[in-house]
Amino acid sequence: MTDEQKLAKFEARILAGEKIEPKDWMPEAYSKTLLRQMSQHAHSEVIGMQPESNWVLRAPSLRAKKILLAKIQDEGGHGLYLYSAAETFGIDRAEMIEQLQTGKAKYSSVFNYPTLNWADIGAIGWLVDGAAIVNQTMLAKCSYGPYSRAMIRICKEEGFHQRQGYEIMAKMMTGTAAQKEMAQDAMNRWWWPALMMFGPHDAESVHTSESMRWKIKVESNDKLRQRFVNRTVEQAHHIGLTVPDANLKYNKETMNWEFSEINWDEFWAVVKGNGPCNHQRMAHHIKYHNEGAWVREAAIAYENKLQQKQKTTV
Ligand code: FAQ
């Protein structure tokens, strides 16, 4: 078959809703985009552990601490599924990590903001995981089999994360005036970064049209952001929180909550490495990655020894 014929067959399979598997023929641009997105997604899960781990030792109760620890471990696990799924393109994890640490690969802008008080843990679970669910439920329908399957499992856990975050916020909103103020303050600081997670407007998005044609993404950045806003505004009002947007208003005809323009200068500054915590996040990752080198070496040595033993027994 010529390349044109292969492409036509590939596109027909996508149109028919078939999953593309690692050994199938695929255009180079398809694997390149997927590898970029999946590795960035994996890095986001891992870097996303940092803002939350800041509060493990200061959790207000044993119950809260256990839940937070379990959630952070889940995020690490999500990173591992995603690195494994990305490895189906023939790259290894060490190379992806090098791309992260040298700034060649991105991770979600939202993790470059600080966690200043306990309510921030509630806001991350409710808003950040809430936004991630809206995006990832869509990605579970992605045309690439390993990514789509990883997403199904991840979404189940994100549902629990979102609810634990909302529970923290709801509880604080029935507390003292100071606790209510803390919850509102966290809402004010995390609302806009959560909206930015969906990426630039569709018209500005470099990858959306090709990604949608090949069903890497099945819905656009703006559509998903609007779905998140519609869902979350109701949840905020239900527990007495105010959405920090003076222009927020419900449009009965479109059944959408309309909202102000995002501060795109801030978004791009954070994406380019100039957010409040970019430097700290990367320095932390590099430090602990280097300190963990002996664990990786020991694991490889153990695996080699095991294989040698198996060979001699056979
Ligand atoms: N941050 O053309 P588009 C979580 C970049 S996981 C940084 O629209 P695309 C769980 C984009 O890469 C959260 N960069 O790109 C958790 C591209 O640059 P490039 C992570 C961003 O790929 C919770 C350029 O801008 N989720 O939260 C961002 O079609 C709590 C142009 O953009 C995922 O990664 C951004 N927000 O759409 C963990 C989901 N937005 O690569 C711990 C998978 C855009 O050409 C604690 N990713 N850029 O240099 C996606 O769905 C997509 O990649 C988008 C962007 C929607 C993020």
Number of helices: 13
Amino- and carboxy-terminal Cα gap? 43 Å
Tertiary shape: globular
Q: Estimate the mean pLDDT confidence.
A: 96
Q: Describe the biggest sheet?
A: 2 strands, antiparallel
- H/E series, N to C? HHHHHHHHHHEEHHH
User: Would you report the number of β strands?
Assistant: 2
Q: Provide the domain count.
A: 2
Binned strand content: under 5%
What fraction, in percent, of the residue positions are helical?
55-70%
Low-confidence stretches: none
Ions and ligands: Phenylacetyl coenzyme A
User: Which homologous superfamily in CATH is the superfamily of the largest domain?
Assistant: Ferritin, core subunit, four-helix bundle
How would you explain this protein's 3D organization?
The chain has helices at residues 3-15, 28-47, 49-53, 62-87, 93-101, 118-139, 145-172, 177-196, 208-213, 221-238, 264-274, 278-291, 293-313; strands at residues 249-251, 256-258. The N and C termini lie far apart (43 Å). The chain has two domains: 3-263, Ferritin; 277-314. Helix 2 (28-47) runs antiparallel to helix 4 (62-87), helix 4 runs antiparallel to helix 7 (145-172) and helix 6 runs antiparallel to helix 7. It is mainly alpha-helical and 314 residues long. It is built from 13 helices and two strands; from the N terminus they run ααααααααααββααα. A hairpin with a 4-residue loop joins strand 1 (249-251) and strand 2. The chain is globular, with a radius of gyration of 21 Å. Strands 1-2 form a two-stranded antiparallel ribbon. The longest helix has 28 residues, at 145-172.
